[in-house]
Write a sequence for this structure.
């Protein structure tokens, strides 16, 4: 479980999410969060790769 929330905490978060957003909006919200996380990971990977290329170019010179 992420951040040691536990089963009871996860159930509470799901119930809170249902109360705030309703059952019809939760799938849309989940997809939006998933897309955002994947784009963030892709961007971070691109930054790391460009930094490695820069370091390799400095080593050659």
């Amino acid at each position: 479980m992420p951040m040691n929330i536990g089963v009871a905490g996860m159930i509470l978060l799901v119930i809170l999410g249902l109360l705030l957003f309703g059952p019809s909006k939760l799938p849309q919200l989940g997809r939006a969060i998933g897309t955002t996380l994947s784009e963030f990971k892709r961007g971070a990977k691109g930054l790391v790769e460009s930094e490695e290329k820069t370091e390799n170019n400095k080593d050659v010179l």
User: Anything to note?
Assistant: The first helix runs from residue 7 to 21.
